[in-house]
Amino acid sequence: MELLPRSPGEFGSARYWDRFFRQRGQRPFEWYGAFPELCPVLHKYVRPRDKVLVVGCGNSELSEQMYDVGMCEDIVNIDISDAVIRQMQERSGSTRPKMSYLLMDMLQMDFPDAHFQVVLDKGTLDALLTDEEEATLAKVDRMFAEISRVLQVGGRYLCVSLAQAHVLKKAVEYFSQEGWVVRVHQVASSGDKQQFVLPVFVYVMTKFRKIPGSAPQILEICPEEQDKPMRMESAERLVAAVKDRQHYALLCNQISKTPCREQVSLDLCDKESGKPRYTLHVVDSPSVKPSRDNHFAIFIIPQGRETEWLFGTEEGRRQLATSAGFGRLVTVALHREQHYEGMAGIQRELSGKVMELAPPGLPARQQVPFLSVGGDIGVRTVRHCDSSPLSGEYVVEDVKGDGTCYFRRLIFLRNRNVVQSEARLLAPTPLPGQKKRRKDKKKPSPAEPPGAIDKSYLCCEHHKAMVAGLCLLGQGLPRGLAGELALLVVGLGGGSLPLFVHDYFSQARVAVVEIDPSMLEVATHWFGFSQGDRMQVHVSDGLDYVAKLAAEGTISQSIPAQYDAIMFDVDSKDLTVGMSCPPPAFVEKPFLQKVKTILKPEGVFVLNLVCRDARLKEAVLATLRDVFPLLYARRIEGEVNEILFCQPSPEGRRDPAELGSRARALEGALRQPGQPWDSSYVLADMLQAVTIL
Hints:
By secondary structure, the protein is α/β, with parallel strands linked by helices. It is built from 19 helices and 27 strands. Helix 7 (165-177) runs antiparallel to helix 8, helix 15 (542-552) packs across helix 16 (589-597) and helix 16 packs parallel to helix 17. Belongs to the methyltransferase superfamily. This is eEF1A lysine and N-terminal methyltransferase.
């Protein structure tokens, strides 16, 4: 402990280093970065005929090892400690005649200008730049100016560093502003985590003549697993990229020693584009008793299924890990922008990386299994990509679900883990005269055109609950199923909710309000939506539309003054609020009173609420109770969604058993001869679980 300085400032003191090396004796002191780890990077930038200057050499073996392997012999080492210079002259003088050791301050060197091709610094900048005080920064500026002076144009300043943010930022900003090319290499680890946890980096600053004016900066990073540099758009982005790698190293070190109390999430990016390629979640199961074969496994989530509850939620992944029977399970989600060469290709790509996330106690040379559903990586085909000023970037994609079913999904990329709209696809119908060959075992190509949209199927559980809420209408729907029903839906999405009501309630007149015209195009072209006499879409802000109806009454014969049912299924574009559906303005009291105004006295207002903020949710429920005397709630199992059924009059109150009975009657009426019906859709299940608030 007596070797450590009393204050960081002593790292720049010759007296401290003299005392340090006298007390340490002949044992070499390496801050970090052993020669075998540094060698691949040094070989790229140090040529045998180069004249090399090592600043702050200490008694490190780096120069000696470079000399001994023939990398370079013309090496000049300098240090401010007289003790260490005499020690090193004694150690290498006779065995390495072309290498010299000089007592010299790197802030004021005696060498002529442009004297060296390489300046090598191992930990010296880190030792000098211990803080960001004015005096310290002035010393660093002098150091950089001297290095620049003694380097030839085209020469390289190689700085081995732990890349603390303030150190890296200072070096990058200084040399990039001087017009130098800046590249940061992450040094490949030897795997020995005992000596040092943080990764080591080498800054490579290549000197160019400064061009007057604003020449573009060249900033690059080379991660340890690749040789090809990645271009960074700014010094801030370069510093952030290094910080990401430091955090990853700390994370791997932490979870290799202790079990994860909380699930850990991280992205692995594509080497070429830098975009996320895999999203990993590390899930530990303390309840699983460890044995030799159940320590660790990797689970590949089939493409398109990452949004399902089992794979897309913490609780679901915890259940998956427990049922799989492994102490640690790493789930791997595949990104839609990437191409994958099957399960074997993914295994080759990930096998080395995932071992960095192995749990403590994993036996040596343990074979780690790769698991999946059905043993494949699933099918995902992007059908359409576009961008909307209101909704941002979005995609329409077809994915293979569990079994043989295919689904079409609308995804907003600003919230890529949430399915905005979903529809089931019918199997393609053979053309007239075509016969299915039983012996033809050729699998269909993912690019083959899918079948038509199955309009009888409501993929979203909350849509099923919203339709079931029509049982609350006062007139009793089973008898009046063929009677007129005026419905207002705010939020179109793919259009499955209004389409279902339109098709199964033969006299229903449905008005849909959608703020984004792009969504009407998507619903029409990709989800089988169409308008007609009983279905009209109004491209408008739902707030304005409802306010106008409330103020003016009947606008036209096709738009009634009052509705039997009003349904809100509209997402919020503001992701900073703890409520993603609906936008906060839709549940403010003045607006809800307008909704009540255009709702018939015996009608029902159905709201899809998605709120993760408990206090905000309680405030929303209190406001709804102020406006609507009768309020039911239906939680959607495995989802954040909660469907609220609001009625203007408390006289229509019914207990859940009665609601279940009405739902069974409605379902019987809806199961019309010749009309398809999804057998999994049981209306009674939706209403028997409601809570009266």
